[in-house]
Design goal:
80% helix, mainly alpha, 22 helices
């Protein structure tokens, strides 16, 4: 049992580190991209990003997570291989249809987004869906055995090549070789090019570790009742932020213009709002990685006592990290914004947006742990639909009045519809998450204290200076370690985590010795 727990934790951090590295690359490439093409060019690139985001959910997180659970339920290697074949066929047919529909409707979608010239970008992104059957099925197959390394290597390689294509297109635009729309189309084609590399890596790994001749052809597939609904549930909730961004792509530009600003200014404002997307994605990577490891351990039932203890520890550690991320990003947002994007424009908006990290992390954990509850899964999908309606309605109400800050408020409030809805469905029962009132109170308290201290430190060092990129880098270098140390000290003083939970963290054993954590 201890070996299995250690393997699960190791797998979590392999995928977490790879995902963090990928998202770090994703955040970093936006710096030269935005600096070269400006906020309007950044808007042109980002406007169709939610479509790529849906592909990302299907290929990287949502589908692999739930498919891994289905694979883990099989009794034999033969059954797993038969399930792999059927999964691949179903996904292939579905994704060819999706690609065709997106390709044919690209001009209409571009018109709805507010700029008809975006249709080529829509078509470039549509091609990526042809890769979903390969990526989702193979990643799910590996993750069912808690083998996260193939997923990690393919994910990092895919992102790296994609970024090379994006930066190349931005440089060509900067030299006047491409116009802004050509730049956007080539940049978005990077997802398809990077995805091909990921598929090659996954196929090579599969061929190396799984010899087909060793597998019997009569393996009987075993699937639990309600799997289709569970697949839909995990996919939509793992990519929940993408769906909100999708609504923003079709509504924010027009609503900003309705408030009285020009098309060009509206595009610039939307570009500033989109600065928050890489930070948000970076923030929720940890929870998604924990979910990826938790799901295969739910292969029998949510009440399996052997795995329940491990899952509860992971939930507490994941929320502990999510609070630290959220509080730190909000406290340092003006400096982080300036460091990444050269100015402080939209910092208040981005601070509001960062609340999504904590809310979405908690939603992801709740959905993963209760995903086998067939009776209530339909209720959760209804909540998802209600939140999308709320997001669209709140955009209409808040954006004309508060601009892009209204869009951020609309997103956070819509996420709360889901979070509180799920808590109401389960009668605010915290036992299955092992979240007692004292732990929740201490989490909030530690996050607030850390954020206040970081703000004070930054204010003291910023007195009499002008905020430049260089200055913001220095402030972040000073403030981040101070904030981390404060959070660690408070966590130890208030006994927020057990020694076993501390050890789940990267280099946890060294950290427990450094912090002198005792049982």
């Amino acid at each position: 049992m201890q070996k299995e727990v250690s393997r699960a934790i190791k797998g979590t951090w392999i995928l977490t580190i790879a995902s963090l590295f990928s998202e770090l690359l994703s955040a970093i490439y936006r710096i030269p991209l935005q600096n070269i093409v400006g906020d309007r060019g950044y808007f042109i690139y980002q406007q169709v990003y939610p479509i790529y985001g849906i592909f990302s959910v299907l290929a990287l997180s949502g589908l692999p997570v739930v498919i891994s659970k289905a694979f883990a339920q099989q009794d034999s290697l033969a059954a797993k291989h038969n399930l792999l074949k059927k999964t691949f066929v179903i996904l292939s047919v579905s994704c060819v249809v999706i690609t065709g529909l997106l390709w044919m409707s690209s001009r209409y979608l571009a018109f709805l987004m507010g700029d008809p010239q975006l249709y080529l970008e829509v078509r470039m992104v549509a091609l990526t869906f042809l890769l979903v059957p390969f990526e989702a099925s193979l990643r799910g197959y590996f993750q069912s055995d808690l083998l996260m390394t193939p997923s990690a290597i393919s994910q990092v390689s895919e992102q790296f090549l994609r970024i090379v294509v994006i930066i190349t297109s931005a440089v060509l635009f900067g030299h006047g070789i491409l116009n802004v729309y050509q730049m956007g189309s080539i940049a978005n084609a990077g997802a398809f090019i990077g995805g091909i590399l990921a598929v090659v890596i996954l196929l090579k790994t599969f061929q190396k570790h799984h010899q087909i001749e060793e597998v019997a052809s009569d393996g009987k597939i075993k699937l639990e009742h309600g799997l289709a609904l569970e697949v839909l549930l995990i996919v939509v909730f793992t990519g929940i932020t993408i769906f909100y961004q999708f609504i923003d792509s079709f509504s924010m530009l027009r609503l900003l213009m309705h408030s009285g600003i020009s098309l060009t200014q509206a595009e610039i404002q939307k570009g500033i709002f989109d600065r928050g997307q890489p930070l948000l994605q970076l923030g929720i990577v940890i929870s998604l990685s924990f979910v990826s490891t938790i799901m295969p351990q739910l292969k029998e039932t949510n009440k399996v006592k052997q795995n329940q203890s491990t899952i509860q520890k992971m939930v507490r550690v994941c929320l502990w990290l999510s609070v630290a991320e959220t509080a730190g990003l909000i406290a340092l947002m003006p400096q982080i914004n300036t460091m990444l994007f050269t100015d402080m424009n939209g910092s208040k908006t981005l601070s509001i947006y960062m609340l999504s990290i904590l809310i979405v992390s908690l939603i992801n954990l709740l959905i993963a742990i209760t995903s086998s509850d067939d009776e209530k899964n339909l209720h959760k999908l209804v909540l998802f639909g209600m939140s999308l309606v709320a997001k669209a309605a709140l955009n209409v109400i808040l954006i004309p009045k508060y601009g892009i800050a209204g869009g951020a408020m609309a997103t956070v409030l819509s996420e709360c519809v889901i979070l509180f809805g799920i808590l109401i469905i389960y009668g605010f029962n915290r036992e299955f998450l092992s979240l007692d009132k004292q732990f929740i109170f201490n989490l909030i308290r530690a996050g607030l204290v850390m954020a206040i201290i970081v703000k004070i430190v930054v204010s003291l060092f910023a007195v009499g200076t002008t905020m430049t990129r260089g200055h913001s880098v220095i402030l972040n270098i000073i403030a981040i370690p101070i904030g981390a140390l404060v959070y660690l000290k408070l966590s130890k003083r208030w006994r927020m985590l057990t020694k076993e939970e501390w050890e789940i963290l990267p280099m946890g054993k060294y950290l427990t010795k450094f912090m002198k954590i005792e049982d």
